[in-house]
Amino acid sequence: MSVAENIVNVRKQLPSEVKLVAVSKFHPVEAVMEAYEAGQRVFGESRPQELDKKVQQLPADIEWHFIGHLQTNKLKLVLPHVSLVHSVDSLRLLNAIDAWGKTNDKVTDVLLEMHIGAEETKQGLYEEEALDILFNAEKWRHVRIRGLMGMASHTDDMSVVRADFQRISAFMDYLKDLFPEYEGFDELSIGMSGDWPIAVECGATMVRIGTSIFGER
Ligand SMILES: *Cc1c(COP(=O)(O)O)cnc(C)c1O
Questions:
Q1: Are 58 and 36 a contacting pair, CB within 8 Å?
Q2: Which segments of 89-155 does DSSP mark as H helices, in order?
Q3: Whose CA is nearest to atom 11 of ligand 1?
């Protein structure tokens, strides 16, 4: 099936209020253009250099999201282009994005990437760390925290995946109750090609889908 057909298929199943982030990493600009021509406008990339290159070659009305691990020395390749960074996984990165924003006069929307999967090495913040950040959120004037992002455990056991998504979704609800004054804190980015229908059931407001749209990388 073509990229355009895949997009139509996903869209058909996705509730209209859930934002589709088409993950185009490792796929050429031609594939992105195919999705663009099918009406897709939001794309996710996970490598700074690749993002920077694609931005130069593709239409200006694309909304770029950064979803990969971001090193603080790569901010200038990413932050000028993106409307959302899904993957703030450390206090150090949050501080660096804020400092970059101060210098460059830009407020960046971000999500806090949570450690929800079983993998020991998986990056992401623990709940206490995220709480600590949100209690001090006014410290970061050039960052707006819009919600949470998470990746489920890497397993075929969908009950484990569901439990991971339910936990981050419950934490999101808890935070919204705890910080009612924090406007715009309402995005939950969970779900990829293999598990997005479960993520939607668990309250996803955004899904990040690569393989089911563009094929294998
Ligand atoms: C690559 C990637 C995706 C998309 O994964 P697919 O399984 O290809 O849909 C989603 N989120 C993140 C953080 C990724 O790195």
A1: yes
A2: 91-104, 127-135
A3: 208
Per-residue pLDDT of 139-184, as tens digits, reads: 999 999 999 999 999 899 999 999 999 999 999 999 999 999 999 9
* Band of residue 121 on the pLDDT scale cut at 50, 70, 90: low
Phi first, then psi: give them for residue 15, nearest 5 degrees.
-55, 145
What mean pLDDT comes out for the span 70-74? 97
Give CA–CA dist 206/42, Å, rounded.
11
What residues line ligand 1, using a CB cutoff of 6 Å?
A: 23, 25, 46, 67-68, 151, 192-194, 208-211
Task: Evaluate whether 29 touches 43 at the Cβ level (below 8 Å).
Answer: no
Model pTM greater than 0.90? yes
Q: How far apart are alpha carbons 192 and 35 in whole angstroms?
A: 17
Among 25, 82, 208, name the best residue to mutate to test ligand 1's pocket (greatest count of ligand atoms within 8 A of Cβ). Answer: 208
The answer to whether 185 touches 175, Cβ cutoff 8 Å, is yes
pLDDT of amino acid 122: 67
